[in-house]
């Protein structure tokens, strides 16, 4: 099974940015933990702060991978283009958020990805990614 985790803007700052919301672990550190916990999955990781790069990555892998875990971060609430890209590919996408977006600012309650996602996992910290991986098994 081949799965990719795609993280959007500012998630490269995990471990430094707002640790009270996002924790103190970097995503790279957590990714090593995921790889060890799911050795039968060919796990890939991509992060970009640039909307077009995320769309291009979805187009690139959306016809060949078995699953996509997408945390589009702030683009979740603003990017019709990412939502359309998810709709355009056959690979199932699980939308993931580290924080509970519904307990935050009201603009974070809207998602352009959710209508086209296989499922949504919100608010379980970094373990949201682990839950998404388990959903593909």
UniProtKB/TrEMBL annotation:
<dbReference type="InterPro" id="IPR018509">
    <property type="entry name" value="DHquinase_II_CS"/>
</dbReference>
<protein>
    <recommendedName>
        <fullName>3-dehydroquinate dehydratase</fullName>
        <ecNumber>4.2.1.10</ecNumber>
    </recommendedName>
</protein>
<dbReference type="InterPro" id="IPR001874">
    <property type="entry name" value="DHquinase_II"/>
</dbReference>
<dbReference type="GO" id="GO:0009423">
    <property type="term" value="P:chorismate biosynthetic process"/>
</dbReference>
<dbReference type="Pfam" id="PF01220">
    <property type="entry name" value="DHquinase_II"/>
</dbReference>
<comment type="subunit">
    <text>Homododecamer.</text>
</comment>
<comment type="similarity">
    <text>Belongs to the type-II 3-dehydroquinase family.</text>
</comment>
<dbReference type="GO" id="GO:0003855">
    <property type="term" value="F:3-dehydroquinate dehydratase activity"/>
</dbReference>
<feature type="binding site">
    <location>
        <position position="71"/>
    </location>
    <ligand>
        <name>substrate</name>
    </ligand>
</feature>
<keyword id="KW-0456">Lyase</keyword>
<comment type="function">
    <text>Catalyzes a trans-dehydration via an enolate intermediate.</text>
</comment>
<dbReference type="GO" id="GO:0008652">
    <property type="term" value="P:amino acid biosynthetic process"/>
</dbReference>
<feature type="site" description="Transition state stabilizer">
    <location>
        <position position="17"/>
    </location>
</feature>
<feature type="binding site">
    <location>
        <position position="108"/>
    </location>
    <ligand>
        <name>substrate</name>
    </ligand>
</feature>
<keyword id="KW-0057">Aromatic amino acid biosynthesis</keyword>
<feature type="binding site">
    <location>
        <position position="84"/>
    </location>
    <ligand>
        <name>substrate</name>
    </ligand>
</feature>
<feature type="active site" description="Proton donor">
    <location>
        <position position="97"/>
    </location>
</feature>
<comment type="pathway">
    <text>Metabolic intermediate biosynthesis; chorismate biosynthesis; chorismate from D-erythrose 4-phosphate and phosphoenolpyruvate: step 3/7.</text>
</comment>
<dbReference type="GO" id="GO:0019631">
    <property type="term" value="P:quinate catabolic process"/>
</dbReference>
<keyword id="KW-0028">Amino-acid biosynthesis</keyword>
<dbReference type="InterPro" id="IPR036441">
    <property type="entry name" value="DHquinase_II_sf"/>
</dbReference>
<feature type="binding site">
    <location>
        <position position="77"/>
    </location>
    <ligand>
        <name>substrate</name>
    </ligand>
</feature>
<feature type="binding site">
    <location>
        <begin position="98"/>
        <end position="99"/>
    </location>
    <ligand>
        <name>substrate</name>
    </ligand>
</feature>
<feature type="active site" description="Proton acceptor">
    <location>
        <position position="22"/>
    </location>
</feature>
<dbReference type="GO" id="GO:0009073">
    <property type="term" value="P:aromatic amino acid family biosynthetic process"/>
</dbReference>
């Amino acid at each position: 099974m081949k799965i990719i985790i795609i993280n959007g803007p500012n998630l490269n700052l995990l471990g430094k940015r707002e640790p009270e919301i996002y924790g103190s672990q970097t995503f790279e550190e957590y990714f090593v933990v995921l790889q060890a916990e799911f050795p039968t999955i060919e796990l890939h990781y991509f992060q970009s702060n640039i909307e077009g790069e995320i769309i291009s990555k979805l187009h690139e892998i959306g016809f060949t991978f078995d699953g996509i875990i997408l945390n589009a971060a702030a683009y979740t609430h603003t990017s019709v283009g990412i939502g359309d890209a998810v709709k355009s590919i056959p690979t199932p996408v699980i939308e993931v958020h580290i924080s509970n977006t519904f307990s935050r600012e009201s603009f974070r309650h809207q998602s352009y990805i959710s209508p086209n996602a296989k499922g949504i996992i919100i608010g379980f910290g970094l373990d949201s990614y682990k839950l998404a991986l388990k959903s593909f098994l």
